[in-house]
Task: structure prediction
Amino acid sequence: MDRLWYGGDYNPEQWPREVWDDDVRLMRRAGVTVATVAVFSWAKLEPADGEFDFEWLDDVIDRLHAGGIRVDLATATASPPPWLALAHPEMLPVTEDGVRLSVGSRQHYSPSSAVYRRYADRLVRNLAERYRDHPALEAWHVNNELACHVQRDFSDESAAAFREWLRARYGTVEALNEAWGTQFWSQQYGSFDEVMPPRAAPTFRNPGQLLDFDRFSSDAWLQVYRAEKAILNEVSPGVPVTTNFMGFFKGLDYWRHATEVDFVTDDHYPDPADPAAPMIAAATRDLMRSLGDGPWLLMEQAPSAVNWRARNAAKPAGMHRLLSLQAVARGADGIMQFQWRQSKAGAEKFHSAMVPHGGEDTRVYRETVALGEELAGLADLVGARQDARVGIVFDWDSWWALEQEATPSSLSYPQVVLRWYAELWRRGVLVDFVRAEGDLSRYAVVIAPATQVLSEAAQQNLAGVASSGRRLVVGYQSAVLDERLHVLLGGYLGALRQVLGVRVEEFAPPAEPSVSGGPVPGLEIAGLATGGAAEWGEVVRVDDAEVLSTFVGGMLDGLPAVTRRGTAWYVATAPDDLASVVDAVLEGTGVEPAVADLPEGVEAVRRGDRLFLLNWSPAEVRVAGESIAPLGAAILRD
Ligand code: GAL
Result:
């Protein structure tokens, strides 16, 4: 499309036909270019087994087309109708405690269910055959937020699929035993048939089994996508196919999923009351751009409040616009919302929408219109790419492993990663997220925070950044385990040990702040970075590196906290003063912020010939010669 996508999920099945005409009128007034249709329409499209009713959907799509609105057509497979699940209860997902989930909400199916697959395939084929030539069809939207509610299914059918997955991965049960270290606690398997999903157990489950089940589950959901995509490609060739991601979502390894969508799309619902929301949203946008290596689409966001937090803050005036501009600035070729018209019944009736309960004479609808107008003026950015010079490693294996049971300390992987990201965001430095084993040659700086799981090849790849004279920053809890979760013996860090010139002898995380008066005190550091050292400490032994900061007090007193060997840095804690470390890392790299000396709370991003300046702070600011109101933006052209 030569315009930005602008619109949202459109659920006309919730309304009588009189409302549909009004919808098109209001969409046109708001400059809506695309509507996502039929996401939850399975029960209406197939009210009984094999009885299809497309007449109403024909009408909806024709009306949209007559109004000049393109259609992102969903395959409607996200919520099977009750008749299907009641006839085949074996398709319902099962929790790790053995509870079989019921009908009455949505996503009540196992990704491994053969029955679900058969019925979903039939529906998708019917839809594709009916609408493949419709002139309004812009894209196919597979299912919806795969794994959103059911990340892992522990049913017998998933157990069988898991065994097949393991057979393909390991070949022999001996190889599986070796990989999982099953000599520990008498867990040795005699055949694949004995292997179970990691269901609820008396205590810690096997780490290899847990990680492989995470990998398998992500792949099982990918299979759901692939099955639909294959049908769509066969019946409706040439029409792009996607599905909507959910930002930093633990359940799915989006690096793997992203290679199979024709364009990446994301759903993002920041909490308007969270001061960190702008930074987290920025990181999420950067992740999406990185996953697809280029422009992507914001597929869902709330025009104002959601209805699923304990307190659902409304977005104050300006915030929705700012979040939308932020997405465009960070590579989005479209801004879509959930949903078009606010429901009057059902579980999401209190979730905001582009047309609220109050109708068109409302703040939110006026903002809907204004945003449509503004986005129309940014159409020339469609397709514009951006080149970041800093890469931060993001790795699902490490996320899963780091947050398992029985680890050195419970850490939140995204939190550790975002601490680094925040420092660059504050400075107006664009960041890509990268894979440790990916092509890192375009980055002047690569940061690997808590990348706990690294294969030999990934260790070598990261080490290569430093040996080629570019900057490599390795954070604590990196390269501790290989891809089987076997410890990298002899001081951890594997192949990175040499470029970093350090070894780690012992982990020694500080006490929680609440108990840090006891025998294990809180930590501080001195030197390049000074002050509090949150969350982590360890005994670092220097073989060949400069010590830039040291721990102060307690058993780590005087030991290295930040080291550097040439262009390779090791950071053994989370300094409150991470800014000093980042300043030093960036120095002399030629990595430039979008605008020098950004005031606090202002975000700056370049895309194409535009400089986006977003003021998240509660005060008016002056930057790049512009005065920007609180929650205001300036978009400057070169
Ligand atoms: C998304 C979902 C939408 C809607 C929205 C509400 O997760 O895809 O269908 O439920 O959340 O915030």
